[in-house]
Amino acid sequence: MTPLPELTHEIAIDQLRDFFREKPLVVFGSGMSCAVDTQFGMTALRDALLTDMQTSSLATEEGRQWNVVQKALEDGKDLESALDAVTERRLLEKITSATGSFISSVDREHACRISTGDCKWPALELFQKLVDGLPEGDRALHVLTPNYDLLLEHACDFAGLPHINGFAGGITRQLDWRAARYSLLVPTRTVLRGRLKVTYKSRKHIRLYKVHGSLNYFFHRDAVIENNSWMWDPPEYAQRVLITPGLSKYQELQRYRQELLRSADDAIAKSSYFLFLGYGFSDQHLEEYIGRKLITQSCHGLIITLSSNPRIEELISKAANLWLVCRAQEDGTTRVTNRQYNNCLDIPDRRLWDITEFTKEILGG
Questions:
Q1: pLDDT in tens, 219-237
Q2: Dist. CA 333–CA 328, nearest whole Å
Q3: Would you say 167 and 180 are in contact if contact means Cβ atoms under 8 Å apart?
Q4: How far apart are CA 102 and CA 84, in angstroms?
């Protein structure tokens, strides 16, 4: 058996740069939001739910299920596992409402700061480079996130980076990917044989799939709609579309499959390169689908995250073309891993797990 080669600094940098020769589908998770404010993380959401649900009026069965959730959290279970106990529809709606209220309050704190440039969403420069580098014949960067917040959208508006999420219309927007794509068309005028010819070409843009819903998504009049004016303080009759943690989220995903998953699934199916930013691989649906492509189809992948975890390590051990860039030690040392090499490479004095520094080092500042 041929021994595996040694991973050196030169090889690692060359391979990381080479990854971006192809257009990846980008998946970003809560790590990108926590880099702005740790309140976007699961720990803060857990504490907010514990506080909010104590003041809620819960029916007998709702109260019993919430007591099970509280006991699980007291015993050290994570929020995702603890919420597996929730099956009551009304309790789920209260949890969704409380989740939306908390995340929207944090989002609101940072929206204006991002929109004026006082605060920077960490992956903005990377996204700008990826969009600018799109080929002429393929002018959409597919981006998928389970995050509810709108930090990416605020950042794109600030930078003038075109983006669509499938909704089109006026104040209340309906799901219509065709109309959304048409909104990006710009005319090009050419003279052919003395006659003016006008053709239309799409602007390079981000195509965003929010697979767990969004602060501005609501179920209203028997349809999922988008309304930005409701996202921070929705009317009582507007039900938020947020897929909260726990086993019930798989039932909810099926309920909203057409609006949240179908287009994302199509984009995943067509992709062979995957870039993961601040994503912890804690969503079974995405892991099964994308993980299968990385492992059985040997698709190419790159994970950039602050901290690794057992789920990531298992995936790295099985996927031949998957790279991991993370923090190795508290001093900020970067660790680069790929199973085709016999060692993990530690790079001192480099914070490549920080997406801002990664972008400067690998793609050029």
A1: 999 999 999 999 999 999 9
A2: 5
A3: yes
A4: 20
Residue 195 CB partners (closer than 8 Å, separation 6+):
none
Digit-coded pLDDT (tens) for 151-187? 999 999 999 999 999 999 999 999 999 999 999 999 9
Q: Which residue has the tokens 């010819």?
A: 197
pTM over 0.90? The answer is yes
Q: What distance in Å separates the CA atoms of residue 200 and residue 74, rounded to the nearest whole number?
A: 59
Query: Which stretch of DSSP H or E encloses residue 181?
Result: helix 177-182
Q: Tokens 């179920």 correspond to what residue?
A: 219
How many Å apart are CA 249 and CA 272, to the nearest integer?
27
As a whole number of angstroms, the distance between CA 318 and CA 119 comes to 38
DSSP characters for 208-256? EEETTEEEEEEEETTEEEE-GGGSSS--TTPEEEE--SSTHHHHHHHHT
Helices in 20-88 by DSSP H: which ranges?
Answer: 30-34, 42-54, 60-74, 79-82
Q: Which of 244, 246, 242 is nearest to 80 (CA)?
A: 246
Task: Give the distance from CA 176 to its chain's centroid.
Answer: 21
**How far apart, in whole angstroms, are the C-alpha atoms of residue 41 and residue 78?**
12
Interacting residues of 202 by C-beta distance below 8 A, sequence separation 6+: 139, 140, 181, 184, 185, 186
Tokens of 302: 């790159």
Bridge partners of residue 188, in order along the sequence: 199
Token pair for 40? 């976007």
Place of tokens 């600030």: 158
